[in-house]
Amino acid sequence: MKIGPYDVEALLDGRFGLDGGAMFGIVPRPLWERTNPPDEANRIELAARCLLIRGGGRCILVETGLGDKFDDKRAEIFKVRRPGGGLLGALERRGIVPGDVTDVVLTHLHFDHCGGTSRRENGRLVLTFPRAVHHLQRRHWEWATAPSLKDAGSFRAEDFAPLADSRDLNLLAGESELFEGIHLRVVDGHTTGLQLVRIEGPEATLLFCADLVPTRAHLRWPYIMAYDNRPLTTLEEKRELLPRAAAAGWIVAFGHDPDCAAALLAQEEEDRVVVARELAL
Question: How many domains does the chain have?
Answer without folding.
Answer: 1
